[in-house]
From TrEMBL, chain A:
<feature type="transmembrane region" description="Helical">
    <location>
        <begin position="98"/>
        <end position="119"/>
    </location>
</feature>
<keyword id="KW-0472">Membrane</keyword>
<keyword id="KW-1133">Transmembrane helix</keyword>
<feature type="domain" description="ABC transmembrane type-1">
    <location>
        <begin position="61"/>
        <end position="275"/>
    </location>
</feature>
<feature type="transmembrane region" description="Helical">
    <location>
        <begin position="194"/>
        <end position="216"/>
    </location>
</feature>
<keyword id="KW-0812">Transmembrane</keyword>
<keyword id="KW-1003">Cell membrane</keyword>
UniProtKB/TrEMBL annotation, chain B:
<dbReference type="InterPro" id="IPR050490">
    <property type="entry name" value="Bact_solute-bd_prot1"/>
</dbReference>
<keyword id="KW-0762">Sugar transport</keyword>
<keyword id="KW-0813">Transport</keyword>
<dbReference type="InterPro" id="IPR006059">
    <property type="entry name" value="SBP"/>
</dbReference>
<protein>
    <submittedName>
        <fullName>Multiple sugar transport system substrate-binding protein</fullName>
    </submittedName>
</protein>
<dbReference type="Pfam" id="PF01547">
    <property type="entry name" value="SBP_bac_1"/>
</dbReference>
From TrEMBL, chain C:
<dbReference type="Pfam" id="PF00528">
    <property type="entry name" value="BPD_transp_1"/>
</dbReference>
<keyword id="KW-0812">Transmembrane</keyword>
<keyword id="KW-0472">Membrane</keyword>
<protein>
    <submittedName>
        <fullName>Multiple sugar transport system permease protein</fullName>
    </submittedName>
</protein>
<feature type="transmembrane region" description="Helical">
    <location>
        <begin position="39"/>
        <end position="58"/>
    </location>
</feature>
<keyword id="KW-0813">Transport</keyword>
<feature type="transmembrane region" description="Helical">
    <location>
        <begin position="102"/>
        <end position="126"/>
    </location>
</feature>
């Protein structure tokens, strides 16, 4: 009970602002809602039965795995390299650090929008650039088919996730005491060896948190795919999150969508649970 | 919560307090009306702000709270409001508005405007949104579709007259596409933005109907023939590349830039071309159909009034009557560039040459079966699935749309 | 902003590239060689910078174009006719009261960040320093709050705030933003607190520091990078929040920039030049904030004076 005063403000916020709407979401998933949102009573597990009967579900689940794992792994690898680079001293480093924050500072919707604009085959500047430098012969409809649209969206997801991840890693690098590195150097360890045996383990706590946040955010990300692949017909470029919104917007199945959002929530909890078990970033928590 | 509230309050961040609409006394009861309207263009919001101001000046006991939303977001916002039983008092929306009546949420159309106003509205528009013979929506604007074509490209391709039939359309489109240089014959937007409109123009042009006896009829021979021809247009290179994932608005811009020979458009586009590309040499012709039989898609937006616990019916009617006053109403349609839905407004519009083709096609216009509660999901299914005719078989696509249309709501 | 431009300050320019040359391996290299290597890094850095800036340069170019030019086929990289007044006119458009929107964004973001920090700091410190039975459940509960899709929660929040009668206020959005970002703040600060050896703190207590003093003098400097990361993360998330604001703030003067942007998207045409210009304006304050506290993020340990 000694802990309570320290934890109370956080608990109050969580219970007050998150638990209620989350409970409401669960409640809605057991209700029968009309196409227009009117509550028509208890539905039992009907909405859930309907979710698991949705034809595109297997495709959408596979996409979700590819989307989340692909984006996060690439993001983390790029960020480790970039953070190491930013940790060096060179003229212009400070400016570069400012520049790298820009994709993070900009709203994700706007960044996606500008890519949609730039990748358009008619008036897109990125397309024009690719043609001008000779990478492609004529403008290509990057966002006009599911595969290249999905991959383009993933690239944008990496693009907007790298800055944050890089800075968490960079902040982690600062906490490594110089004498530890010196000691490693004196031991005669090579650069690569020093990195993996000394630097990387000390980055783990920061990296673990960054990875968790990335997994969650990427998994739940709506705006990138909605903006970039929203015009593509079918569900071949959908993740469970965008699929959920198509269920509301196109199919008017608000109650089924609620059930899917609960399923979505359970899936991400399981994913994070597995991650915690395997990576054990909470070692310190349990220690 | 207390901690958080206290902290925020101490910081002086409590935001804007609620309006003090109550307790001002004076002439009878004070009523507050929530008005939710979609944004057509950059003149929409100033128009409503001024109208509300003028209205409040005449009716000091009625306080109108205006909320505007983009067409992208308004459905999402309305869903949340409905789910929480907090609809606005007055809503302007497409045919999805009157459809709220299926949940018993709306006043009847004749309850929210005076008999004089009701009389003045074209019966065809009122009929287009009746549910079981009862009207709930009062039409605000109407539009029909027509073929916009680029005369310069026509000349270059040696086409003398705008196509009337599908075959002529295919032929003309291929000729223009053959010009090359990033120029395409027919602009076919089947992306999610408004795929149901493009599809309906084609299907209606072959005598298809999306509804029969209360059931959605999507997978029909007429529709199949229409979609098959659309696929032919795509396969033979008569359209822009990737029509399945091309949205309407960006494609219209490409037409305005002179890179597309023909595209289906509607009245507001006229003003846009005049403003953005005054040098474009273009004209409008009736939508081509299979045999040249005149028919096209008509669309209307409506005002509906929500019947909530407190009785605001009289105030709603007062406000809407004010909106339909000749001056106010004509100005609204001038701003947005649509066809007025009232008889008196139509007389004013008849004077405008740019609306001629649209007004003429009005008698042959066929509307969405929007009064069927399943239309919303059907239209959604068109948006998300019909673009797949580019890669899948027409049969498969129609079946999947029919299946989605048949889901019980 | 001048600080931004001045390159390595005299006090640090002599230091070799940490961490790898820290042990003095660079001594063998001549100063010239070292310089060349550092400038080589600058060249690489410039390329990296260009990649990260590219989409925003497109945005910037678009912000200076006219409404007609922005959708020109084929496009031009730069405006033919520079419309500098886009950046002036956007403040007075009929679509949205932009000065109010900017103020809303600032107030909501500052309020949300401050509140999140005030709630997260004690929790992060306590959980990193003490073992108690409900610690793991608490940390998991915090984490789980982050896993909910914000758009999905908007409907329930609407219901809650309407009944609390704080719907359509900044306060509502401050609470929402603080709660949505609490999880990250707690976890990241927890992980930084946890990396500080207990011994350092205990030694400080032995030296006669009070708990508060040791917190201020020893712990804070050590975990400062973590706190700064939490501040930046929370602030940016608040700054760009859209899903809940759209539903909870119907009055235009209360709406943040993200919602205001959508007002320029019409049914048949959009004022992209304003959308882009406002997006650019929206990025600048965040970068400025970052410039202000970036050095704390970087200096961290060394500046803390722990030898």
């Amino acid at each position: 009970m000694q802990a309570l005063p320290w934890l109370l403000p956080a608990l109050v916020l969580i219970v007050g602002v998150v638990i209620f709407p989350a409970g409401y979401m669960v409640y809605t998933s057991f209700r029968d809602l009309s196409r227009f949102g009117k509550d028509r009573g208890w539905a039992g597990f009907e909405n859930y039965v309907r979710v698991f009967g949705l034809d595109p579900l297997p495709t959408v689940l596979t996409n979700t795995v590819v989307w989340t794992v692909g984006t996060v792994v690439v993001t983390v690898l790029l960020s480790l390299v970039l953070a190491q680079f930013l940790n060096k001293k060179f003229p212009g480093r400070k400016v570069l650090r400012m520049v790298i924050i820009v994709p993070w500072a900009a709203s994700v919707v706007m960044t996606s929008t500008v890519f949609v604009y730039g990748l358009d085959p008619f008036y897109g500047i990125i397309n024009k650039f690719l043609v001008d430098v000779g990478i492609i012969d004529e403008p290509y409809g990057f966002l006009k088919n599911a595969t290249s649209g999905f991959l383009s969206a993933m690239a944008v997801a990496v693009f907007v996730s790298v800055p944050f991840t890089t800075f968490v890693v960079l902040a982690g690098l600062q906490t490594i005491p110089h004498d530890v590195l010196e000691a490693a150097s004196i031991d005669g360890a090579g650069k690569v060896q020093t990195y993996w045996s000394v630097v990387f383990p000390m980055l783990r706590p920061a990296l673990a948190v960054a990875a968790i946040i990335n997994i969650i955010n990427v998994f739940n990300s709506l705006p990138i795919l909605k903006t970039m692949t929203g015009a593509i017909p079918g569900n071949d470029a959908d993740t469970t999150t965008t699929f959920m919104f198509k269920l509301i917007q196109n199919d008017r199945q608000i109650d089924t969508a609620s059930a899917l959002s609960v399923v979505n929530f359970v899936v991400i909890i399981v994913v994070i649970g597995v991650y915690l078990k395997v990576v054990k970033p909470m070692r310190e928590v349990n220690a | 919560m207390a901690v958080a509230v206290a902290t925020a309050a101490a910081l002086g961040l409590a935001g804007c307090g609620s309006d003090s609409g109550s307790g001002s006394g004076g002439d009878g009861e004070n009523v507050s009306l929530e008005l939710l309207v979609p944004i057509y263009g950059d003149k929409t919001k100033p128009y409503w702000e001024q109208l509300v101001k003028d209205f409040e000046a005449e009716n000091s006991n009625i306080d109108v709270k205006l909320e505007t939303q983009s067409w992208d977001d308004i459905y999402n916002v309305m869903t949340t409001k409905m789910q929480n039983n907090k609809p606005p008092d007055i809503l302007e929306l497409d045919a999805a508005g009157p459809a709220y009546a299926t949940d018993g949420a709306l006043y009847k159309a004749e309850e929210i405007v005076s008999p004089e106003t009701y009389e003045d509205i074209e019966p065809a528009f009122i009929d287009s949104a009746k549910i079981d013979g009862q009207a709930y929506g009062v039409p605000t604007v109407a539009s029909t579709r027509a073929l916009f074509y680029n005369k310069t490209l026509f000349e270059q391709a040696g086409i003398t007259a705008p196509p009337k039939t599908w075959d002529e359309l295919l032929d003309a489109s291929k000729k223009i596409s053959a010009l090359g240089g990033g120029v395409y014959g027919y602009g076919m937007p089947l992306g999610s933005e408004e795929a149901q409109a493009e599809t309906s123009i084609w299907a209606y042009g072959n005598g298809a109907s999306w509804e029969k006896d209360g059931k959605m009829t999507i997978d029909t021979p007429e529709a199949k023939e229409a979609l098959t021809f659309m696929k032919k247009m795509i396969d033979e290179g008569a359209t822009q590349p990737n029509p399945g994932a091309t949205d309407r608005t960006p494609l219209l811009d490409v037409f305005i830039q002179g890179k597309i020979g023909m595209i289906e458009g509607l009245p507001p586009i006229v003003g846009q071309i005049n403003e953005k590309a005054p040098d474009l040499d273009w004209a409008i012709a009736p939508s081509p159909t299979k045999d040249g039989e005149p028919v096209t898609l008509g669309v209307a937006d409506y005002f509906v009034g929500f019947n909530k616990d407190e009785d605001k019916q009289e105030s709603i009617a007062k406000f809407l009557d004010f909106f339909y006053q000749q001056d106010n109403y004509v100005k609204f349609n001038d701003n947005e560039g649509f066809i007025p839905a009232t008889k008196s407004g139509a007389e004013a519009a008849a004077a405008k040459p740019e609306l001629k083709t649209f007004l003429e096609s009005l008698p042959d216009a066929k509307f969405y079966p929007a009064t069927n509660p399943a239309w919303g999901q059907t239209s959604g299914a068109f948006k998300s699935d019909v673009g797949q005719i580019e890669t899948k078989s027409v049969d498969e696509v129609l079946k999947s749309i029919q299946a989605k249309a048949d889901v019980e709501g | 902003m001048r600080e931004l431009a001045t390159e390595p300050s005299p006090s640090t320019s002599g230091v070799l590239d940490p961490p790898k040359t820290e042990a003095g391996t660079g001594n063998a290299a001549t100063p010239r060689k070292r310089d060349r290597k550092r400038w080589g890094l600058t060249v690489v850095g410039s390329v990296v910078a260009l990649v990260f800036l590219a989409p925003y340069l497109i945005m910037l170019s678009g912000a200076f174009k006219s409404r007609q030019e922005i959708l020109k086929v084929p496009p031009e990289y730069l405006p033919g006719d520079w419309k500098f007044d886009n950046f002036v006119n956007m403040w007075g458009t009929p679509e949205t009261p932009l000065p109010d929107n900017l103020l809303s964004t600032v107030v909501i973001s500052l309020g949300g960040t401050l509140l999140a920090l005030l709630a997260a700091l004690p929790a992060a410190y306590y959980t990193a320093r003490h073992s108690f039975r409900l610690k793991l459940p608490f940390m998991l509960l915090v984490l789980i709050t982050q896993m909910l899709q914000p758009t999905v929660l908007a409907s329930g929040l609407f219901r809650e705030f309407v009944s609390l009668e704080i719907n359509d206020t900044w306060l509502a959005m401050i609470l929402v933003n603080a709660a949505f970002n609490l999880s990250f703040a707690v976890w990241i600060m927890h992980s930084f607190f946890a990396t500080v050896p207990k011994e350092i703190e205990e030694a400080a207590w032995l030296d006669g520091c009070s708990r508060g003093q040791s917190m201020r003098r020893i712990m804070l400097p050590l975990v400062w990078p973590g706190i700064v990361t939490a501040i930046i993360f929370t602030f940016i998330a608040c700054w760009n929040e859209f899903a809940a604001s759209l539903i909870l703030l119907p009055t235009d003067t209360n709406q943040p920039l993200t919602v205001a942007l959508t007002r320029f998207i019409g049914q048949y045409e959009s004022a992209w030049q304003y959308v882009f210009a406002i997006s650019i304006i929206g990025i600048l304050p965040v970068v400025a904030l970052f410039a202000m506290i970036e050095k704390h993020l970087v200096s961290g340990l060394t500046a803390g004076g722990v030898k």
